């Protein structure tokens, strides 16, 4: 039981901190949301390649995998696994393979929602 | 125009005149909402693990569910309100990625399903995939060469 | 020198035409703002029964055009020109909105200064004997503008404090050489001014230098002073641009502080309606003038108004290419007693 509560607390803190960093970037620089997303996914990928991000995942669980840095983590760990198995070909297949569920979901649910809903004005 | 200041001087003058966002308040809100969204993801993860799913399956299923939630909240006209409050707390989690796909798709419905919805879905998500996947490929090649 | 020119950028009209009728239709947010009682119509929602934001904006112009004619007691056959434009690519709101108007059409683009630009041209056409009746009309729409210039509506972004809210609304005026109404006596046409501001979320600061340039030039060309007016009204400089405008005009020797206001600050309650630096868009100056200012001129509360609509001449492409924001401001001098 204790262990489970710890996972929630760590996820909350680690995830919150990563988002807080993003907020500082939004407020202090002129970065738009698209550029921030690109920055975070690339940063996650690079930090994973350097072996640093795994530690964050070990501590924070979903707090590290849910933010978009986690998507970069997912891509790179998948890539490394495939390179171990298939050599250089794995560099190309591994990332997309690992992120397959996310990419397919994004495309399909994105399309579904746009069929089902219409845009509403902001208040 | 009879210039009383140079462009550079004017830009410095504007800097002084332009109010800053309330960074402290915004960072706190981003922390709280971002943390909350991640905690929800953790909850789903724990449940799936208890049900006996393996690590890789869990990570795929959690992505699927979180993306679905982000997409649904966008369609229901709720996610933009969350975003106004939470800023990065709603942009950075993977739900924000789903939001960035669904929002232009809905917006450009009036331009048809192929060039409107189909093309515009990737206006924000496209760069994420391009840079994310490219970085992972480069990392993979370097990893291979170092082995 | 051409006989009606005054100084560098101003013309003085010899047979000052009159603004004989105006109309304004606005969206729900504007309909909850401080000026809500001054507009002719407030639509219930931004789609207004149409299939897209763009079509809704065309409907805004179409209906406002009809209302201008109706209130001015004229048919479209009696209108010699309609001069119009809007923010959308290729000005499709105006083009499609006036498609069935059956009136000779000049399309203009001045971004948010469009109403003043079209009124300048319209007044010159009437004063020059080229027309008896001209309708000048423009519109903007929050949703269609965000879609084109910024982000999808459902995207969860935060707007900085300097950002402005594009007005959903259309405003039009009828300028004639007879009838009753306040007179247009002088027109000072702006030059494009760019002092290097690149932040599309801080348009007020980008446009303020253009407003200052036109206002100061107007005073120098005409010999008028701030004391000649009871209101100097800019289109949409917003909270930040307003401060800059007052300070920079003061530096050039003209203190306009006590008689100065800005349509973007008047149309919304900034606190309650969360509009940050204020309203913007072609419809901002147009609806505030056509609704509020015109009524005040007609009932005598205002006698001499300098109407200075400001526009930011950027596009999404120029911003992506790292360009700054060139701006323009057109001034129209309006009075209830032309002998002044």
Automatic annotation (TrEMBL), chain A:
Pfam families listed in its UniProt record: SpoVAC_SpoVAEB
Keywords on record: Membrane, Transmembrane, Transmembrane helix
InterPro entries: Spore_V_AE, SpoVA
TM region(s), chain numbering: 6-26, 33-53, 59-76, 88-113
Coiled coil: none
Protein name in UniProt: Stage V sporulation protein AE
Lineage, highest ranks first: Bacteria, Bacillati, Bacillota, Clostridia, Eubacteriales
TrEMBL record, chain B:
Transmembrane as UniProt keyword: yes
InterPro entries: Spore_V_AC, SpoVA
Keyword flag Aminoacyl-tRNA synthetase: no
Superkingdom of source: Bacteria
Transmembrane segments: 26-45, 57-78, 85-102, 122-146
One family name in Pfam for this protein: SpoVAC_SpoVAEB
Key words of the record: Membrane, Transmembrane, Transmembrane helix
Name listed for the protein in its UniProt record: Stage V sporulation protein AC
TrEMBL record, chain C:
Origin superkingdom: Bacteria
Entry GO MF terms: acyltransferase activity
Cited SUPFAM superfamilies: Thiolase-like
Pfam families: SpoVAD
NCBIfam families recorded: PRK08304.1, spore_V_AD
Stated name of the protein: Stage V sporulation protein AD
Organism: Acetivibrio thermocellus AD2
């Amino acid at each position: 039981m204790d262990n489970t509560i710890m996972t929630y607390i760590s996820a909350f803190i680690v995830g919150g901190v990563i988002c807080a960093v993003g907020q500082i970037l939004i407020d202090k620089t002129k970065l738009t949301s698209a550029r921030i997303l690109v920055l975070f996914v690339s940063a996650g990928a690079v930090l994973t390649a350097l072996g640093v991000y795994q530690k964050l995942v070990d501590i924070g669980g979903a707090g590290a995998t849910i933010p978009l840095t986690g998507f970069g983590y997912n891509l790179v760990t998948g890539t490394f696994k495939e390179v171990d198995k298939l050599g250089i070909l794995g560099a190309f297949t591994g990332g997309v393979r690992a992120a397959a569920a996310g990419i397919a979901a994004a495309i399909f649910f994105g399309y579904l929602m746009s069929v089902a809903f219409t845009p509403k004005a902001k208040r | 125009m009879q210039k009383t200041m140079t462009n550079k001087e004017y830009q410095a003058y504007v800097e002084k005149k332009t109010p800053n966002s309330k960074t402290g308040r915004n960072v706190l809100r981003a922390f709280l909402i971002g943390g909350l969204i991640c905690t929800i993801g953790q909850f789903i993860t724990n449940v799936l693990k208890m049900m006996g799913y393996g690590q890789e399956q869990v990570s795929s299923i959690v992505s699927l569910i979180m993306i679905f939630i982000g997409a649904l909240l966008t369609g229901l006209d709720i996610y933009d309100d969350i975003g106004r409050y939470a800023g990065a707390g709603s942009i950075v989690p993977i739900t924000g990625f789903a939001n960035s796909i669904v929002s232009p798709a809905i917006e450009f419905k009036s331009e048809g399903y192929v060039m409107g919805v189909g093309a515009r879905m990737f206006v924000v998500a496209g760069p994420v995939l391009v840079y994310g996947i490219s970085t992972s490929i480069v990392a993979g090649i370097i990893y291979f060469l170092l082995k | 020198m051409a006989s009606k020119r005054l100084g560098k950028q101003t013309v003085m009209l010899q047979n000052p035409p009159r603004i004989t009728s105006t109309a304004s239709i606005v969206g729900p947010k504007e309909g909850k703002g401080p000026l809500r009682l001054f507009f002719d119509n407030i639509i219930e929602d931004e789609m207004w029964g149409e299939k897209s934001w763009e079509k809704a904006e065309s409907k805004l112009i179409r209906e406002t055009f009809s209302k201008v004619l109706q209130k001015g007691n004229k048919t479209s056959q009696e209108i010699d020109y309609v001069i119009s434009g809007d923010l959308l690519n290729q000005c499709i709101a105006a083009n499609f909105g006036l498609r069935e108007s059956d009136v000779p059409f000049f399309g203009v683009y001045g971004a948010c200064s469009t109403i003043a630009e079209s009124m300048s041209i319209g007044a010159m056409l009437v004063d020059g004997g080229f027309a008896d009746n001209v309708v000048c009309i423009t519109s903007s729409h929050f949703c269609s503008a965000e879609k084109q210039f910024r982000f999808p509506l459902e995207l969860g972004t935060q707007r900085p404090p300097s950002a402005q809210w594009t007005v959903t609304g259309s405003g039009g005026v009828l300028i004639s050489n007879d009838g009753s109404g306040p007179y247009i006596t002088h027109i000072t046409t702006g030059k494009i001014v760019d002092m290097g501001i690149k932040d599309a979320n801080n348009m007020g600061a980008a446009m303020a230098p253009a407003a200052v340039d036109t206002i100061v030039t107007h005073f120098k060309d005409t010999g008028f002073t701030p004391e000649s007016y009871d209101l100097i009204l800019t289109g949409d400089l917003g909270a930040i641009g307003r401060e800059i405008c007052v300070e920079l005009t003061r530096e050039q020797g003209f203190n306009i502080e006590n008689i100065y206001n800005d349509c973007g600050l008047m149309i919304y309650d900034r606190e309650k309606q969360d509009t940050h630096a204020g309203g913007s868009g072609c419809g901002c100056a147009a609806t505030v003038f056509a609704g509020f200012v015109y009524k005040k001129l007609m009932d005598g509360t205002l006698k001499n108004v300098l109407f200075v609509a400001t526009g930011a001449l950027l596009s999404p492409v120029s911003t992506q290419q790292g360009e700054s924001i060139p701006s323009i401001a057109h001034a129209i001098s309006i009075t209830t007693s032309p002998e002044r």
